[in-house]
Specification:
Structural class: mainly alpha
Helix content: 55-70%
Number of domains: 2
Distance between the termini: 34 Å
Strand order of the largest sheet: 1-2
Number of strands: 4
Shape: globular
Number of helices: 8
Order of helices and strands: HHHHHEEEEHHH
Length: about 170
């Protein structure tokens, strides 16, 4: 597995972003009947090629949403109350979500790209980038956003395009 080259990723993104988003829009509206089986297979392939610890772009450029369950778990890890944790580390967005106040994430170790709260990290982080959620069309909007930040999502869409085009040719 080769390390993620963010410079190369950004170049590919500049070239393919619009077409990949159009593709996701198209299959979101009319997904192939086997889309969820295809994404499960592609998910395994992607993780043979992508090493998140050589990237951590999600932690550097995005923030998770902390659910009430996450808040309790992470606050307890720091021996804080939920309110103490929120005051020290988070801000409330207009929509009511609790998110990090800083980017990169305050819990990211920039030397090795490891999460200092990995064992208790928010569910949003644990599930990221949500490649093999059961219903692809329910997460298509998330994939459209994540291709801008996540080489694994970008790779998944790249592979998905090939598979869906192959299905179209065969049909």
């Amino acid at each position: 597995m080769a390390p993620v080259n963010l410079r190369s990723f950004k170049k590919k993104l500049a070239i393919h972003r619009k077409s990949y988003r159009r593709f996701i829009n198209k299959i979101e509206k009319t997904p192939p009947p086997t889309i969820n089986k295809i994404t499960a297979v592609i998910d395994k392939e992607v993780w043979q090629e992508i090493d998140c610890l050589t990237c951590a772009n999600c932690c550097k450029k995005m923030t998770p949403t902390f659910t009430p369950k996450d808040l309790k778990r992470v606050a307890a890890h720091f021996n804080q109350t939920v309110d103490e944790f929120k005051t020290k580390w988070l801000k409330k967005e207009r929509n009511g979500d609790w998110v990090n106040t800083t980017q990169p994430c305050q819990f990211l170790n920039l030397k090795d790209n490891k999460c200092s709260i990995y064992a208790v990290r928010p569910d949003d982080c644990a599930g990221f980038p949500h490649l093999k959620k059961k219903n692809f069309e329910d997460y298509a909007h998330v994939h459209k956003q994540n291709i801008d930040y996540c080489p694994a999502t970008f790779k998944m869409v790249e592979k998905l395009i090939c598979r869906v085009e192959a299905l179209t040719i065969i049909s």
